[in-house]
Specification:
The protein is α/β, with parallel strands linked by helices. The chain contains 16 helices and seven strands. The two termini are 33 Å apart. Bound molecules: flavin mononucleotide (FMN).
Length: 302
């Protein structure tokens, strides 16, 4: 998830039981330009078993070169983003705009598999309600060697609104010759169980539901493996997790960068109880790490 799954967040997700966590989407153009900021997004966390790098772009040749650079920098798996609906990305032919151009999408996968790593692809159901081309897109990427498909069955036009079309996910899961990983509206362990039952997809990817609630992974594993119903996190659990995340970010990226970049994540952790909004507002006004820790500590019982 762009803006979220840096190496610290991925570490926390995997510690909580995620099988793997993809990097934020990384610009193939910037990677081939050797941008140091972009190269730093390939950083593996200590003990990361599968470094899964997601690339975006519009040019098959550049995507192929970027896949090679990712492989040379230690990636174990490459994912192609053919679903991002953000205008800045689609205007340049990337994300969902690439998913719309099935021929180019196939060429991109063909170029990327040459890097010698498994290549997965993330698609949406189509551009808009009248142009739902996921069947053609799947055929093209499978033919060119994609190893698995992440499917978010909303159109680009839908963005993140409305409901994901789990029926389409079920249809794809039944027909695709490669594993299908379902995405869309997985905001709780029980939603994951429901998706697996309803669609028979091979796996799931949890997105918004994990922001500020990394324990969703461990609680989902407990539900799936032992049938343990979800125990919702207490405010104390959330604050402890927020503090842990903040401290890990400070250690990895430095105090100033963590204090700045963690604000939106802190806001996501601090929600769901009556006095949360006051604490959230106070956190948003902070400018340094120690002020953030003081605020969190004020609510954590030792
Ligand atoms: C803030 C945000 C950032 C995202 N970034 C990415 C991304 O970089 N790559 C990607 O494939 N999907 C990205 N997504 C889409 C999610 O992976 C997922 O498909 C979508 O949110 C639907 O799942 P959900 O309803 O469980 O959130 C992002 C979604 C959000 C909300």
């Amino acid at each position: 998830m762009s803006g979220y799954t840096d190496c610290v967040t991925r570490h926390i997700f995997c510690n909580n039981g995620a099988f793997l966590a993809y990097t934020e989407m990384i610009s193939s153009e910037a990677l081939v330009r050797n941008s140091s900021r972009t190269l730093s997004m390939l950083k593996r966390f200590d003990g990361e078993k599968i470094l899964a790098v997601q690339l975006y772009g519009s040019k098959p040749e550049i995507l192929g070169r970027a896949a090679l650079i990712a492989a040379e920098n230690g990636a174990d798996l490459i994912d192609l983003n053919a679903g991002c609906p953000v205008r800045k990305v689609t205007q340049k032919g990337g994300g969902a705009a690439l998913g719309r151009d099935v021929r180019k999408l196939g060429l991109a996968i063909r170029a990327m598999v040459k890097a010698g790593l498994p290549v997965t692809v993330k698609i949406r159901s189509g551009w808009d309600e009248t142009e739902q081309n996921w069947r053609e897109a799947v055929q093209a990427v499978v033919q060119e060697g994609a190893s698995a498909i992440g499917f978010h069955p909303r159109t680009c036009r839908q963005g993140y609104g409305g409901k994901a079309d789990w029926k389409a996910l079920g249809e794809l899961s039944a027909a695709a010759p490669v594993p299908v990983i379902g995405s869309g509206d997985l905001d709780s362990p029980s939603a994951v169980l429901k998706m697996l039952k309803k669609t028979s997809c091979s796996g799931v990817m949890i997105a918004r539901g994990a922001i500020g609630y990394p324990e969703i992974f461990s609680r989902t594993c407990s539900l799936l493996n032992e049938g343990t119903p979800e125990i919702p996190p207490t405010p104390e659990d959330r604050l402890r997790s927020a503090k842990n995340h903040l401290l890990m970010a400070a250690e990895t990226f430095g105090e100033n960068s963590a204090a700045r970049n963690m604000k939106k994540l802190l806001a996501a952790y601090v929600r769901g109880w009556p006095s949360a909004s006051k604490l959230r507002n106070d956190l948003m006004k902070t400018t340094n790490l120690s002020a953030q820790l003081t605020l969190l500590d004020g609510f954590i019982q030792d």
